Amino acid sequence: MNTQMTYTAFLDEQCLASGLLVDVATAIQQYANQSNSTVLIFNDQTGKQIDLDVSGSKQDIQQRYAEPEMVKKVGRPKLGVISREITLQQKHWDWLDQQSSSASAVIRKLIDKELNDPNSESNKMLAKQATDRFMSAMLGNMPNYEEATRALYQGNKDVFLDLIRDYPKDIKEYLILKTQNIF
What we know:
Layout: E1 7-11, E2 14-19, H1 21-34, E3 39-43, E4 49-50, H2 58-65, H3 90-97, H4 103-115, H5 121-139, H6 145-154, H7 157-164, H8 169-178
Helix pairs in contact: 1-2, 5-6, 6-7
């Protein structure tokens, strides 16, 4: 399962950097100090904009945004399990009771299977919403924006691609990349 978040930064219509947060933050540091334009950074999975503090040295940025290193500890690993209550119908509990693993293990496997399937309906909807957030921030005033958004949600690839064909190159390429599993 790919749970690693990636980010993409744009300066006006130009894509500056894409990748892990620390790499994007390091790459945009020079632009943040040199340009009067605002650098917009997007979470690739959610389409939400984020703000970064790119002040200080390259080492400061790496310490601020680098993933914490995994430290090997002796003993049983902490699994990161969060206990919550769920409510199911009797037929669901009956089905879970017939499985060879515990109910929690079966539910985790089902969720992991869904998360790893980019073609599942729920993941397609999440991808549409993320693309819509990006489009709203970057293209809200562009021609064909509303029509392209409708085509996105309707799943009409040909109309969508036709409507975005005159958009700036980097934005169009980003949209095509983000919608590859939607249509």
